[in-house]
Amino acid sequence: MNLRCILPFLLASFSAGAFVFNRVATFNICTQIDPTCNTDTEAVAEIVDASPDGNTLLYTDGVAGNIGLVDISDPSNPVGLGTIDVGGEPTSVAVTGDGLYAVAAVNTSPDFVNVTGNLIVIDIESQLIVATLPLPGQPDSLKVSPDNQFIAIAIENERDEDLGDGAPPQMPPGSLVVVDKSDTDPTMWSTTLVNLTGLDGLRFPEDPEPEFVDISTDNVCVITLQENNGIVILDLASLSVLTSFSAGAVAEITQIDATEDDMISQTESLNDILREPDSAVFIGTDYFATADEGDLDGGSRGFTIFGLDGTVVYESGNFLEHATARYGHYPEGRSENKGNEPEGMTYSTFGDENLLFVLSERANTVYVFNVDPTDPSNVSFKQVLPSGVGPEGVTAIPSRNLLAVASEVDDRGAAIRSSITIYEYAEGTAAYPTLVSNNRADGTPIPFSALSGLAAADAPGIGGQAGILYSVDDSFYSKSRIFTIDVTSFPYAITNEMRVMDSDGVLAAAFPNSTLVNDDMTVNLDQEGIAVSREGGYWIANEGAGTVGDIENPVTTANFVVKVSTEGVIETVVTLPEEIDAIQVRFGFEGIAEYGDFIVVAFQRAWGEEANPRLGIYDTTSSTWKFVFYPLDTPSSQNGGWVGIGDLSPVGNGDFVVLERDNQGGPDAAIKKIYKISLGSMLEVEESTTVEKTLVRDVLPDLAASNGNIYEKLEGLAVTSEGEVWINNDNDGVDDNSGEQQLISLGMIVTIPEGTATPIEDSPTVSPVQGTSMANRVGHGGALLVFGFFALL
Ligand SMILES: *[C@@H]1O[C@H](CO)[C@@H](O)[C@H](O)[C@H]1NC(C)=O
Ligand SMILES: *[C@@H]1O[C@H](CO)[C@@H](O)[C@H](O)[C@H]1NC(C)=O
Ligand SMILES: *[C@@H]1O[C@H](CO)[C@@H](O)[C@H](O)[C@H]1NC(C)=O
Ligand SMILES: *[C@@H]1O[C@H](CO)[C@@H](O)[C@H](O)[C@H]1NC(C)=O
Known about the structure:
Keywords: Signal. Helix content is 6%, strand content 40%. The chain is mainly beta and 793 residues long. It folds into two domains: 431 residues, 7 Propeller (Methylamine Dehydrogenase, Chain H), CATH 2.130.10.10; 337 residues, Tachylectin-2, Chain A, CATH 2.115.10. The longest helix is centred in the first third of the chain and has 12 residues. One 2-acetamido-2-deoxy-beta-D-glucopyranose binds next to loops.
């Protein structure tokens, strides 16, 4: 029994009694259109609320113009109940406290000046609209008071961002509508407009633009005025404004990344950043929290807890930015633009925990904090949860120990479907994150994402340390790195990052005038595969960019392999024979493996007119290539697409396992498989033969086990000397991707032949085909072999 088998058991016995949230289901909104989501039509969920019994969810679909219903009586198996057309764009929905009605704010404005809207009242049982109350403008957020007496509706009358410089003030001004719903007949409910112009603390007092409302058990209403960086506190019974104030600025946020330079640097500071809060939620009756998303000039990348008089009792500083980086969810592409962007939030009591949930719209995560309602300066982080892309709405259902989060982005072409994620609060351990990073020396987390290859230190024939994996990032980032992952305890930990360096000028000599090498000798590779070498150091496969003859995607870099030392310095560059480069397609090197004196590289897809992708077998002793073809599965997704190789790993005796995947995600994903092939002694493999493959594992069920949408890019595969198989996904730098990082052990599913787990002494050579090594080859032999072996221990 290895250490990793014992640890979860120990963790479980120590954590008895601990309650955590885990994802139990993902409901794709497209299933309301087609049960298998075989549709390109956009269907989204933005704001979500639950019926008082917690069995039904209602959500707004502002794109389709309807309110959707979902039965969650079995939370792990949500069932769509259809949609109700509301004749406009619903901006918010809430269920009344008696459970009779869903009330929806609906925008019907033809433009930004002629502003109109309705409050639609839906009888939940019959699913019929029973009342339509006109609103004096374009609504945004809406809430029903906890005592079920009032509905507060923010009438935003949002600005036209394309008018002039887009800045407020822009007439007409927004306001608040308060509905007195005491009459049993919803058509008789009375509405009152509350004028919010001219208040203290606003940047544009003539143009309030209210964004979000929440109501306390005292019937006090908090209203955020995002563009105004303002907050209004109002008494619902008397309809009087109690106070209004500026949400203020965060004086300094340190150690963050405020520059989009293809690196997550965490070395910058921002000063006097306006909070510009979006959502707000009461914490008891005397405090409220705001999600400081930002809009015009601000966005302080965190959340704040205020007293009702505007006193700041807690400010999260750089916590969310760092947490986001620590879990691989940092959106580098938003560094100059409000970072993780906290947007939605809610507060609720589960068991004996008082919990604040904060949704990061750009990181696609939910952060859960314990916040003491009697002392809300006492905030402690509990856990992180993965959501769909663009989490916007959240509702807590403590009576059923459930939490629901609506993620609004729906883009089938990008393998993203809008969804509602259901999480359950139960005794146990958190299944997410699977991978977290340790800190750098400066106290910030080692940032990581776009992990595109995987290798075990103790891969068969290598002999390195058990419990260690290596990964690499791809061309999403500059200054390429190799990551060390400790998998002896869960969550798995990134314990080290190492930049690949061209200190000896080997890469620069191989590719003069290229932008592959930076001034500081770091390199910008498109690392798609990594293998550990039995001689010490690593082999890295660089995927070339561009396709020969394609004007839109011309060839800018070639496919090549680099050997780097244990210190990360490039020692060798191995390029392809010229005639192979001559048929380059932009789906190139994707995986690499070492076995004996050979390295094997997998091309992602077929090149030129060829029917199948190549596997390149490179003999390091003779510097010669030999190629065979790998027979890919035929795309079987309902959405078509293509299939390619994601990675490969040695399993002893010249056998390899190969990861195959289609370019589909979510309900369209069909092919995520591990096959085994044999290259035998590699000497006997005939040039240009098509190898035979046998299925080792269909990993779709393994991926589905985390109850999320299947991710498209399964790009990491590693096998240990004991036959344990690991897979990992490339989360694309959280760009058109949820950022979810699933590093999964499939268990000991491969048998490693006896005697092949330890380093190979020597290997037969293949007959030369093309000699094209860029020389500088590392020496090799018995002495080096032994040195390499011990260096890895
Ligand atoms: C608003 O409505 C009026 C009357 O229907 C129309 O003339 C005008 O073009 C609309 N738009 C604006 C921007 O005023
Ligand atoms: C709101 O109050 C301002 C003065 O504070 C007034 O000019 C404006 O007309 C009022 N708006 C409405 C809709 O009553
Ligand atoms: C802070 O809150 C936690 C619960 O979240 C509680 O256990 C702890 O005692 C509180 N600490 C202080 C100093 O009040
Ligand atoms: C590199 O650039 C220099 C000057 O810009 C040029 O003279 C030289 O031929 C280039 N080398 C290659 C290999 O393209």
